[in-house]
Amino acid sequence: MLRALFNWMLVIGLILLGGRLVTLICRYFDIPFTTFFKDYALVSMIILIVGIIGTEAMKKQK
């Protein structure tokens, strides 16, 4: 159960990271794009970091 939660947090964090990269590219080329990923960058980084740490901790317990 806990392993699945950490795996989902990792996946969601990676998706949000991809969204931030797309936002960065669009801003560089002056293409209008949503600011959702820029506004929630801290939250998405926390989700990604917790997902990574949790996934690694579950691997070591096995």
What do you see in this structure?
- The two termini are 14 Å apart.
- The protein is elongated, with a radius of gyration of 14 Å.
- It has one domain (1-61).
- The relative contact order is 0.23.
- 84% of the residues lie in helices and 0% in strands.
- The protein contains 3 helices and no strands.
- The mean pLDDT is 88.
- The protein is an all-alpha fold and 62 residues long.
Write the layout of secondary structure elements.
Blueprint: H1 2-28, H2 36-39, H3 41-61
Key phrases:
membrane; mainly alpha; 0% strand; 62 residues; transmembrane helix
Report the count of strand segments: 0
Helicity, as a percent range:
over 70%
Low-confidence stretches: none
Shape: elongated
Class per helix and strand makeup: mainly alpha
User: How many structural domains in the coordinates?
Assistant: 1
Largest sheet: none
Strand content: under 5%
Indicate the mean pLDDT: 88
The number of helical segments is: 3
Q: Concise description?
A:
It contains three helices and no strands.
